[in-house]
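Take a look at the protein record below and tell me what you see:
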Amino acid sequence: MLKLINKLGYFPKTCVWELTLGCNLRCFHCGSRAGIKRDNELSLDELLSIADELTELGTERVTLSGGEPTVHPHWDLVGERLVKNGCQVNMISNGINWNQNSVERAKKAGFSSVAFSIDGFRESHDYIRGIPGTFEKATNAVKTCVENNFPVSVITTIYRKNLGEIRALRDFLEESGVHSWQLQIGNPAGNMQDHPDLVIEPEDLLEIVPLLAELRTDFKKPAIYIGDNIGYFGPYEEQLRGTGKEIDFWLGCRAGLQVIGIESDGNVKGCLSLPSDMNGVDYFSEGNIRDSSLTDIWCNPDNFSYNRSFTIDRLSGFCADCAYNEICRGGCLWTSYSHSGEKFDNPFCYYKVAVEKGIIEPEK
């Protein structure tokens, strides 16, 4: 599959863009350790210039993120510029600042939707946010969007305290008018590296994956989207990622191939989730737009080598000998790296766990 992508060429089809590292929360699972904005965050002129360059590179969808994007004074102006250039734009928010004015700004700018992070019911959500009352504010933000006919999604990070709430949470989101729901696993990276007791165990995938496959194919609302760090292969893969298209399975990490991440100080990564300076890692930083244009960074043949120049000898352990390793390439790079460093042996793989537990036979 990587050979096919190489032949087709690289373009940043989707972008997740950290407008600011500033945030009004200090969540235990925050991979970027957000809170205080960077000293050298991009100016509005720089942000608008990047918006123009992204669309010139062919970017089709941009997600504005943070930190908390609504604490940035110009979040709607950046979104508006992208929309005028032909991009589809949405935003991920914790919902703390979201109100009627926020909806009006988003609709005027042309945003397609907004997604709020809701990590379980009141106790579980407030616990991982570290502040009581955040569940109520997030659900009120959802209600405000629904009342204004503005499409709203929810993103849930699965961790130890909300593991048993997934089915009931789906019913709650349906009743709340949420139109889509993305689920992902909490990785021991960023703040969650300091809270390893909150991270689920690989064996939990034997419960999580069949449940999500069932919920995703029962044709109820909200529509379910599975995060890139859940999978891979085995009997449930088509149910997890099925779209009705000819290829309905995991095709490997797209960071630096069809995905780009931009930090608030102008640093460029293949995926915003990959660790960087806030976690003492420079392995995934490919350059800064203040030193080189975004186009030059993206088109540099030496950049994003972990994917563009991938060979299976990068993998170790189970991944090195897996029958799917050329396609999967170790699964979600962020997950693999956060658990195993540069050994790239991903323990959070349903196929790996199921084979090791004797539930399925290994493919030859």
